[in-house]
Amino acid sequence: MGENFRAISRLFKNARTIPGWRSTSGRSRYHIPCLNDGLELLIDLGDRNQIVQITMLRYGWLRDTYPDIWQATNALAEQIAARRTKERLQAAENQARHDHQRAVATQLSMLTDPEERLDYWAANTLLWGKAAPQLVRYADWLKQGDPDRWHDAALQWNWDQGTIPLHWIVSRPDCDAATALAIFYLGEPFDQPDDSDDGALLDFIRKRWEGIGYPSHGIRFDPPAYVATSVSDDDLRRVPPSMRLALPGRMVATLPYHDGIPITLIQTPS
Question: Which ranges of 126-196 does DSSP label H, i.e. alpha helix?
């Protein structure tokens, strides 16, 4: 009888997923087949889901007595089982992606060379849970580029995909001052926590700007209008006066992008 009580417990735990139907008296009726002692349970519930009647029947009773209901409940049970299997597989895939992302983040935290970080990021980052060969092509495209290409890439980048490519750009000796400032302000320096990945990127740019600086290749930059009113001590610490100036110059030609990647790189077959 212990199995019978466990079956009843499962019924109330999974009331929304165990197949059931309405009896002629209007009660909710649930059928639990294949108990270990060779019986079936027929459970009738009242209006408030309280048990009204429990009937123990021989195995095969529902199939022989109500074949249409038996077929319908079996079909529903199969659908439920298939859905649960799909949910378990999805959960396993999500966990695998999560574990992969943690492993990638751990490895990136141990790498210090911008070139090595870019290569590892491109080869191991997943997009929508799948390998992304376009990121490898993107990394190669950046390496083959010049300050104009880097500036355009920085303006179009999707920060949701991380900041590794931006770190690589601002670490280049030839990175333009306008590019460094554009990335800096896109990172929202007045609001960015210092201990975040984005904060580390902004700190790198700020220290280089105040140190060896960035060269100019004649690219234009205009700081956001709100900079002029952000003058508290903390604001000045985050954005020193030398980084609040406009840089005269030319606009850079741009390519068509999708989600931060040039469309030509996405369409290139792997």
Answer: 133-143, 147-156, 164-171, 177-186
* Residue 35: closest CA among 64, 6, 12: 6
Q: How far apart are CA 231 and CA 241, in angstroms?
A: 10
Cβ atoms of residues 98 and 107 within 8 Å: no
pLDDT digits (tens, 9 = 90+) for 198-221: 889 999 999 999 999 999 999 999
Contact criterion met (CB below 8 Å) for 180 and 208: yes
Least confident window among 43-47, 77-81, 189-193, 242-246: 43-47
Q: Which residue from 223, 219, 226 is spatially nearest to 242, judged by alpha carbons? A: 223
Q: Report the amino acid identity of residue 74.
A: N
Segments of the chain assigned E as strands: 20-22, 28-32, 39-45, 51-58, 126-127, 130-131, 257-258, 261-262
Do the beta carbons of residue 55 and residue 33 sit within 8 Å? Answer: no
Residue with tokens 């956001």: 224
Read off the pTM.
0.70
Lowest-confidence region among 109-113, 128-132, 170-174, 194-198: 194-198
d(CA 139, CA 176): 19
